[in-house]
Amino acid sequence: MQFPVSPDLSIFYETRGEGPPLVLLNGMSQTTQNWMSQVRHLSAHFKVLSWDARGQGRSGLGEQELTLDLHAADLLQLLDALGLERVHLCGFSYGARLALAFAARSPDRVERLVLTSLGDGSGALRNVIVRSWQEVLERGGMTAMAWASIPHLLGEDFLSRYEGQMEAVIRATVSRNSEAGLKALLAGLSSFPPTSDDAVRCPMPALVISADRDPLVSLESALALNDSFVNAEHRLVEGCGHTIPVELPEIWRRYVLDFLL
User: Fold this and answer.
1) Strands (E), the chain
2) CATH of residue 213
3) Residues 81, 206, 190, CA angle at the centre, nearest 5°?
């Protein structure tokens, strides 16, 4: 479904299942299709809403800078249009930062908050990795960036099992996104304020999930974010890289369901 957030721009969303509403927010180069396997399980318990933020997948981009305020306003419009007063928010990586921003700006609309692969934003390694993606995208295009990002996003165990499928993963990533959208998303990310600025404004229960082999989010960074909340708990997934819901889907889902149900 397409929902118009302005006269000339629409965002794409999907819903499935019945029950308390649960909103899923994508990683930067992901789309709603990356949640398909998890949605099949989660929709047994929830009315699951997945959506492509501006610049992602089948949503428009527009001319405005992709700020947290803009993303949060888009989601608020969508929830109002669907008549969803209070929701659980569950975001991964870039989507986790958007979920946190929305929860801080509209805390009365959020029941519980799940943030996966998000830290306090500190660390030179994380900053240099993100900058390297921008440089590769600018000089080499989407396919080059997709290949360059794989070692940062997927852990060694997962790659050992599925190395032969990486060509298909790259093709899917490139086909589902636009170069302009990824450039805008990366540019926006570099200007986002510290996560602690928003976490301290969130009174709802929160769950922070991180992995022990994630080069983008260290354990220290995840714990620092966790400690910024009034009411939060942390779960560490072992033997996993950045993309926890894909690499170890059953473990990730168990933590989420235990927290939300």
Assistant:
1) 2-6, 9-16, 21-25, 47-51, 87-92, 110-116, 206-211, 232-237
2) 3.40.50.1820
3) 75
Alpha carbon distance 44, 3 (integer Å): 25
Which of 122, 109, 72 has its CA nearest to residue 228?
A: 122
Whole-structure pTM value? 0.97
Domain that holds residue 217: 2-260
Note whether 2 and 22 are within 8 A (CB).
no
Q: Which of 90, 77, 173 is nearest to 133 (CA)?
A: 173
Q: What is the count of structural domains for the chain?
A: 1
Show the tokens assigned to 48: 């699951």
For 210-246, give one letter per residue: b (16+ CB within 10 A) or e: bbebbbbbbeebbbbbbebbeebebbebeebbbbbbb
**Per-residue pLDDT tens for 99-133?**
999 999 999 999 999 999 999 987 899 999 999 99
